[in-house]
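Morning!

This is the sequence you dropped in the shared folder:
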Amino acid sequence: MPTTTDDIQALKRGWKVGFGDDDEFVDYFFANYDDETTRRVMRNAEGEIVAQMHCFVFDDEVCGAKACYVYGVTTLPEWRGTGLARQMITEALAAMRADGVGYAVLIAQEEGLRKWYETLGFVSMNHTIDVRGADDDMNFGMDDASLNQGLYKILNEEIKELTHEVRVNKIMQTQ
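The structure's back. Tokens below.
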């Protein structure tokens, strides 16, 4: 289904509800990083967007594999607990695997979220990760880098584990 202007407004509202970011950041993110290739959504029976996430593919030069940074996963409060985020992430990672992506990585700042992602097969890293935007060096993590606890999920069995420090630099230039 093509994205409409109303959809973009719904995505922005959902982002603000999910993360509490101000209008300036939300407008900037959607103007510079959101597009049909990165965005995944779940809709209700009426076609309204009720859950969203972004997947940014990049080349991991240390691993020699393509990887995916999962960002901005959120579900509207009235739809939480329905399995939509789990389904959305599972489908997105299956598509990434089919496209030859070796692993997915994300940052979950809260312990409860880390535990939830572990139920999806993600494993905690022993270090933080650094994720930066392309032309603007936007920080896709927390301002306090110590909160950028990474989790990863292997999508290609040729990669046994992820032990090196991941730096997803220039995220949009690698697409």
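Headline: The two ends are 22 Å apart (CA to CA).

More detail when I'm at my desk.
O.
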